[in-house]
Each structure stands twice: as structure tokens, then as C-alpha cells.
Amino acid sequence: MTATAPQRIVAVSAGLSRPSSTRLLADRLAAATRERLAAGQDGDVEIRVIELRDLAVDIANHLVTGFPSAGLREAIDAVTEADGLIAVTPVFTASYSGLFKSFFDLIDPAALTGTPVLIAATGGTARHSLVLEHALRPLFAYLRAVTVPTSVYAASEDWGSSGDEHTEGLPSRIRRAGGELASAVLGPAVSGASRTVGPDDGEDTVVPFEQQLADLRLG
After folding, report:
1. d(CA 133, CA 29)
2. Which residues touch 158 (CB under 8 Å, ≥6 apart)?
3. Angle formed by the axes of helices 70-80 and 56-65, to 10°?
4. CB-based contact 5:43 (threshold 8 Å)
5. What is the pLDDT of residues 103-142, one digit of tens each?
């Protein structure tokens, strides 16, 4: 019997401090995804967290020279070969961090086509939560990745909060987002676009989420 290849989930954390709330959020999202994947299949699940802090000098050198170090090349390969990606950044100047953007600038624009991605961010105040929709989601749309519907923003006051009757707390948002990423990895894409083979040339064709939804309603 041929062994089933493990599902590979890679989380990219752009946190700069140690300990880092960005790394903590990446770990919790990865754990939630692993839990749902393990419940939905019999195969193994591999989780890897890439700390961009440790690759900052290598990223800068690559931007200048065009030659990645062995460690940076291995990290890029892990991201582009992942079955599912978790991308977490701290908010700087109302956007993703420069380190986060610099790393993804090194990814080939076609390398993440159709890859399910869960986007998340951390910040000191909830006022910056729209960075997920204004900055991160467009970035991964450009890379032709499939962003799951639920994105997770964690402000300082969210840690330890269980929410109230009107809003979900951070733990429930993490569980829901992890479940969506697991579903996207195990089955058809749930948001943005999906991988389908074109009838003429066999290349990937992007199917808008709205069209997928219309097809489901018609069916």
C-alpha cells in the first residue's frame, strides 16, 4: 500500500520581538488548522513555522544581489510547496511590515496560484483591523492565492478575551479560520479562486468565488 503524503501547512510569522504576539497567533492558527485536518483525514499533518526575523539579513541581501542564501531558498521552497499557508504580520504604519512584504516580493508571482491562504495580523489597537482587507488580501490576490473568508486580527485587548453576545472572541475566530483553511486544503477552494484546468491549453484558469457560489446554487 502506498503511504499517503502528509498535508504540509506552513505558517509565516513576521514578528520582530521575542516573545512575539505575531508568532503566538501563527502558532494558534496552525494548531487549529492541524486539529481540523486531523479530524477530516487519516493522514499525517506537518506544521512548520517560518520566522522572518531570523531571515531578515538574508532577505535584504537577496533583494540587493538576487542570490538567496541556502536558508532563505529553503524557506521560499517550503512556502511555495505548502498545501496550505498561514501568513501573519504585525501592523506597521497601517499596513503589513516591510519585512513581510520583502519576503513575499521574493516569491514568484505564479508560485502560489491556487494555494489556500489564511491571512492574519496583530496590532496594538483594533482600529487597524482593516489592514487585512486593504493590504493583505489584495497582496495574495495578486499572487493568485486562495484566501479563506475568515481573516484574523488580534489587537492587544483581544488576548484573553472570549468576546460577548455581539462579537466573537479571538479563540473562536481562530478556530473558524483554521477550519476554513483545513477545508480548503482537503477539498475545493472556499474563497477567491480555485484551480481548474482550461479546456484548450491545460493551464490554470481562475474561477471567481461569485461564480462558484452561483454554480452551487444552480446545482
Report:
1. 18
2. 126, 169, 170
3. 90
4. yes
5. 999 999 999 999 999 999 999 888 889 999 999 999 999 9
